[in-house]
Amino acid sequence: MLKYGLCFIVFFLSSFSLYSQPGIKGGLAVSALQASGEDYTPFLGYEVSWVQYGTSNPVFGIQLGAFYTIGISDEFIFQPELYFAHRGYQFDQTPLYDINYSLGINYIEIPLLVEYYLPLGWGFHSAFIAGPYSSIKLSSDKKIKLPGEDIHGEVSSVNNFDYGIIFGITTEFSVWSGEIILDLRFNWGLANVLSQPDDFISISNDPGTVKTRAVTLMTGYRFNQAW
Description:
Helices cover 10% and strands 60% of the residues. It has three helices and ten strands; from the N terminus they run αβαβββαββββββ. A hairpin with a 7-residue loop joins strand 5 and strand 6. By secondary structure, the protein is mainly beta. Strands 1-3-4-5-6-8-9-10 form an eight-stranded antiparallel β-barrel. The protein has one domain: Porin, CATH 2.40.160.
């Protein structure tokens, strides 16, 4: 349903657009998970029950995909996008035990963004970005680094979907027959991305919520000729 709904929106807006242009983007994302109760044991098990109280660090991952720009007016554009996006979090207990627990989640991310171009009158264009996104989980894995041993495994407690809002700023430079784009954007997750697995012994009646946070720096190219 999501795929058909997105296609309908793109087709409808394209029918009334001033112009439409495809493009590609890629870059680096820095992500983390934020637990309401600051305890990840109900979701990840006793493997993190004490490791999580060491040092918590974000995870670096790639974000790659494509977008389609639909011009609505001189100031506003609508831009549906499609990305492969890596998210995650990690815990360290290096000083005492030399142990690291890392959770990595791969998503297909679908933002639906609106850009407002700032009337700066410079030799390049800048715009504010805002809009919702939804994500579909592809895989979720853990990696535990112990002295002399690495343990890998699937994490069943990661939910299949995530959603939230994106906001940020973009800058465009005209090059050749298109534009080079630089994006700085923030993902603020609204969905609970972790659940207490059924096969866990009930650790908490109310484990709380865990939500994604991410900052992404991307560069891309927009083609002047539509597909």
